[in-house]
Amino acid sequence: MEAKAIARHIRVTPMKARRVVNLVRGLQTNEALAILKFAPQAASEPVYKVVASAVANARAAADRAGEAFNEDELIISEAFVDEGPTMKRFQPRAQGRAFQIKKRTSHVTVVVSTQKGGEN
Q1: In terms of CB atoms within 10 Å, which end of the chain has fewer, N or C?
Q2: What domains lie within the chain, and their CATH numbers?
Q3: DSSP output for 21-83
């Protein structure tokens, strides 16, 4: 069984979000949530929410299918961060100049699956 969760337009740069996602890729979901809860990076909060949402989606899919659901069997089979749209802002500088500031966004995707499904 597989379930997916996507968070789009997260106001964190993709490079910073990838550091956090790399911490939890391939781990069991319970262990990943514990790591994300205490990770010092700011990007760990939105990634935590995406992983928790993927687990909830897996629970809902199991309920719809009438299957038994065990949260301990779920692992993060896929996790990646794509670049979202960049907001362009200007900052005034000396002598009437303007410097461009790029406020980057991210799309975080997490796929959880049972260990049996991930090995096949």
Answers
A1: C
A2: 1-111 (3.90.470.10)
A3: HHHHTTSBHHHHHHHHHH--STTHHHHHHHHHHHHHHHHHHHHHHT----GGGEEEEEEEEEE
